[in-house]
Each structure stands twice: as C-alpha cells, then as structure tokens.
Design a protein that fits this description.
Its EC number is 2.7.8.13. 61% of the residues lie in helices and 2% in strands. It is mainly alpha-helical. Strands 1-2 form a two-stranded antiparallel sheet. Helix 4 packs across helix 5.
C-alpha cells in the first residue's frame, strides 16, 4: 500500500504556515484503508454476522472510514491541507452516530451506566439520555483517534482501543 500511495502521490499537503513539517511532505495518507480492510476481512471470517452488534460495528467502521477517506481524498485532489470543512465532517459523523444509537435503543440495548471496576451499574439512563450519551461516545472516540493520528499517521495503537 505504501508503495502504491507514494506512486500515486497520495500525500497530505503540508501547510506553508508550518515550515517545520515540510520534511513530512512525502508521508502517504489514507493508510486507514488497509486497517479498515483488514478489520472487515477478519470480521467476515471470524465474527457472527447475524449478530446485530457486529453488523452495527461494521457499519460504524465503514461509515466513519468513509468520512476520513473523503477528507483525505479532498486534501489530495485539491492540494490543500484543509480537506472537508469541520462542519461537514462533524455533521456526517453526528448523523451516523445518531442513526446507530437510535437503532441500538430500538433493539433494546440496556441503558445502564457502568463504571470500570464496579460490579453494579451506577444508574439506568432514560432512553433519550442514553442515545445522547452513545452519540457523545462515538464522536469523542472517533475524534480522539483523529487528533492522535496527526500528521504522522500513527493511529494504529489508539485505534486498537477504539475497535
């Protein structure tokens, strides 16, 4: 993939306002394609595709990855490191997160709030609060990985924890 990306010049343009990053101008972008492909293949081969939660997980992965791909593709095509607008990215992620969260609530996912290392839930959230909380978790997790990824494209370790 790296050889292909370099041959296609699939590099994120570097802002002229950050001259110290010019040495990273040949770092290929869109490496998430490999990560997503491997995860989907592993899921198809090993996971129970009849399980709603597995399917929703794949939908979230593909949907969020599409937003990232579109952003990277825009950066490469327009030779501009801005990519998609933040409003557009956030809007797409929000709609996907809300849709999946509503599906989870319709399928009866319990709305208890658990804390790490505690056996019993802290309390049960009303359905609307649970949906809002799940949307917040989806958006926060996705954006935390995106911010960690940064220019070097080293998102593999934080991605392991989010998957």
């Amino acid at each position: 993939f790296i050889l292909w990306a370099k041959a296609k010049k699939a590099n994120q343009p570097i802002s002229s306002f950050v001259p110290s990053h010019q040495n990273k101008k040949d770092t290929p972008t869109m490496g998430g394609i490999v990560f997503v492909f491997a995860t989907i293949v592993a899921s198809v081969l090993c996971a129970s595709l009849g399980n709603l939660y597995v399917l929703l997980g794949i939908i979230v992965l593909v949907g969020f990855s599409f937003v990232g791909f579109r952003d990277d593709y825009t950066k490469i095509n327009q030779q501009n490191n801005a990519g998609m607008s933040a409003k557009m990215k956030f809007g797409m992620l929000f709609v996907l997160s809300l849709g999946v969260s509503v599906l989870l609530s319709l399928k009866g996912l319990d709305t208890f709030l658990y804390a790490p290392f505690l056996k019993n839930p802290l309390f049960e959230m009303p359905t609307m609060l649970a949906v809002g909380f799940w949307v917040l978790v989806f958006l926060s997790t996705s954006n935390a990985v995106n911010l960690t990824d940064g220019l070097d494209g080293l998102a593999s370790v934080p991605s392991i924890f989010t998957l």
